[in-house]
Write a structure and sequence with these properties.
77 residues, mainly alpha, 3 helices
Length: 77
């Protein structure tokens, strides 16, 4: 059975983890700084934006089909 990533599932998992860590380590602190500056240090806005980002992530995972291969021709080899 070939799932998401097929023979490249390790590479796919590594890429997903890399992008997640990149967002958490470099993008999020900068965005938080901008939000605090724009809202005159209103911390609730930071948490609202964070909650919205997490909700978008939940929606993305809810519609992900982990069984259907991305390249059906290569999966049959």
């Amino acid at each position: 059975m070939h799932g998401l990533g097929g023979n490249y599932v390790g590479s796919l998992a590594g890429a997903m983890n890399t992008l997640g860590q990149f967002g958490g380590a470099t993008v999020a602190p900068a965005v938080i700084g901008y939000i605090l500056t724009w809202t005159n240090y209103y911390w609730a806005a930071v948490f609202y934006v964070s909650a919205a980002v997490y909700c978008c992530g939940i929606l993305c995972w809810a519609f992900l089909d982990p069984v259907t291969p991305l390249d059906p021709e290569r999966a049959n080899r």
